TrEMBL record:
It comes from Scopus umbretta (Hammerkop). Pfam families: AKAP7_NLS. SUPFAM superfamilies: LigT-like (SSF55144). The gene is Ascc1. It comes from the Eukaryota. Residues 3-191 form the A-kinase anchor protein 7-like phosphoesterase domain. One of its GO terms (cellular component) is nucleus. This is ASCC1 protein. One of its GO terms (biological process) is regulation of DNA-templated transcription. Transmembrane segments: none annotated.
Length: 192
């Protein structure tokens, strides 16, 4: 389909649920975020999780914008296997705490639980390297090229990806990797 290429897919080692984005500019801010994460664990996360991993099901796909023929982000839908809203409640409370601390800007009323599968910001641009070498000092920003997601949405509307045990919340560093291939982690809280 128009605009679809293999470079749009998320690296499987980096699949995750994003609760929110932080801009941490120095070690003190990273430490503040780590400390806040631990306080959240004590204040409400342990109570919500019961000290055990949360079993979530990943099933079906959805897109972020208004027109499926012009998709930029396609994601897998995530919900608790037991039908409860514990993951949503925990995610919303974590974001609320980080917003109240000043470490995060409030963007939405609630966290959209999703796992990004395809994203046009991942698109590899074969001309980018050439442009970067010839336009030294100039921005090489390129407009996102959307893809037609209508057939993918039809084919995978109810696709069952499986279930997973969520056992931690991590402060992951964008544009990084650790030895496992996942993002480098600045801090984390574990449920068990």
């Amino acid at each position: 389909d128009h605009g679809v290429s293999s470079s749009l897919f998320q690296n499987p080692a980096k699949l995750h649920l994003t609760l929110g984005t932080l801009v941490l500019l120095n070690e003190q801010e990273i430490q503040k975020a780590c400390d806040l994460l631990q306080r959240c664990k004590e204040d409400f996360v342990d109570q919500i999780t019961g000290g055990k991993p949360l079993t979530v099901e990943v099933a079906g796909v959805e897109y972020m914008n208004d027109d499926p023929a012009m998709t930029d982000v396609l994601y897998a839908k995530v919900h608790m296997k037991d039908g409860s809203d514990r993951l949503q409640v925990m995610a919303d409370q974590l974001v609320e705490r980080f917003v109240a601390s000043g470490l995060m800007l409030k963007e939405w009323d609630r966290v959209k639980l999703h796992a990004t599968v395809m994203n046009t910001v991942f698109r590899k641009d074969p001309s980018a390297e050439e442009r970067n070498s010839t336009m030294t000092g100039k921005s090489s920003f390129k407009e996102r090229e959307s893809f037609n997601g209508r057939n993918i949405l039809k084919l995978f509307e109810h696709f069952y990806f499986g279930e997973v045990q969520l056992d931690s919340v991590r402060l992951s560093q964008r544009f990084s990797s650790d030895a496992s291939g996942y993002y480098a982690t600045s801090g984390q809280l574990t449920f068990s």
